[in-house]
Amino acid sequence: MTSSASISLAVSTVIFALRTDERGVSSVWLPLVRRIREPHLDCWALPGGPVDAAESLESSARRNLLETTQLEPAYLEQLYAFGDVDRSPDRRVVSIVYWALVRADEAERVTAGENVRWFAADALPELAFDHNVIVDYALWRLRTKMEYSRIAQAFLGDQFTLAELRGVYEAVLQKPLDPANFRRQMESSGDVVATDEVVTGGRHRPPRLYRYVGDVQLVDAGPLTPRIPA
Amino acid sequence: MTSSASISLAVSTVIFALRTDERGVSSVWLPLVRRIREPHLDCWALPGGPVDAAESLESSARRNLLETTQLEPAYLEQLYAFGDVDRSPDRRVVSIVYWALVRADEAERVTAGENVRWFAADALPELAFDHNVIVDYALWRLRTKMEYSRIAQAFLGDQFTLAELRGVYEAVLQKPLDPANFRRQMESSGDVVATDEVVTGGRHRPPRLYRYVGDVQLVDAGPLTPRIPA
Q1: What is the CA radius of gyration of chain B?
Q2: Residues B58 and B142 placed together within one structural domain of the fold
Q3: Chain A interface test: which of B1, B3, B6, B7 (most A C-beta within 10 Å)
Q4: Domain containing B107 — which CATH number?
Q5: pLDDT at A3
């Protein structure tokens, strides 16, 4: 008979948001927290902590996020359980990792300071534990999911211009996309449709707002959430 | 400060295989094991057990599978971590669930008996713990993944006839598919290509063997496995 008595359980969350620089180029950023205890004292790490015996995994993820970053993300999904034997130097820790995709207005709730800071996802320092591996995996999943789900909506809200949607794809895929080709592909895919609305603000030719069609799935939110029927 | 000292960690695995009845109708089956201790004594349950402190999560899944079912599946993927507070009646258990898709020749290794038995996935008895929810979730993931990955290959091996491939889709989607339409869809998808080989055995018009094209991804095998570049 084996025993798991000496394994600790933790949750961590990868939070992705998009930022656009002064040249109009979007990229993926994430907030990290500085560790204030050993191991890896002073290293940057994903927000997280131990699971309380009385809370579910998702509740634990949400509580840890709120405590460290003030975020209450609409999009929060379980990513993967990381359980390599030697991933923590002083004891065995299995981490259930969630990921959150947040809109710009949500991201503003994160108060950066000495112990919380935003980093570009493709230019991270050496993080605590296996957190670099975790972020790389989350980025790979983000790129993969863009191809078959309306995950971009998590960054944009319900309505968006095609230029905004293209910005999401450019940020995640890390390459510029031709605007005319992108428009053609999106319109022929049947995944997005034009609404009757345009961006307000007095421009001569205000861009039209689009939305995803109803039956494209946003996200696999796990087994206990109502889903769009297949 | 919260603590996870009282949370036990376990792994379980959902094993899916296909069976074809005497009318030629395929369906999804899975082997279950009878519990020989409380809680849920004598109930059928997914094969699994506690994670040993010295083994990784996947190693634990593989060891438990081998011990209970003699299976060493080629396709084994992490499915989800189930961590509801009340999922076990007597203590807090978080289960990392894997799923395995096995070919018919692999499935034959499972020696059914008093404590191991195959069940049709759509006609399960009431299982131990939340294992019915877990199987339903795995079936949903299987159906969803069929749409964007070559997951059917896990049931078939590298080469297969279009009739065999259609059988997989019919079993997973639980509905008959028109052979001519299916052939047209598969051939136009670009996902499968005809090989130069046919089924041997002396039939007058032996069916041609197909294979998936190289750049369709079989499976997300997790963050630590080499992947086909995007």
Answers
A1: 19
A2: yes
A3: B7
A4: 3.90.79.10
A5: 47
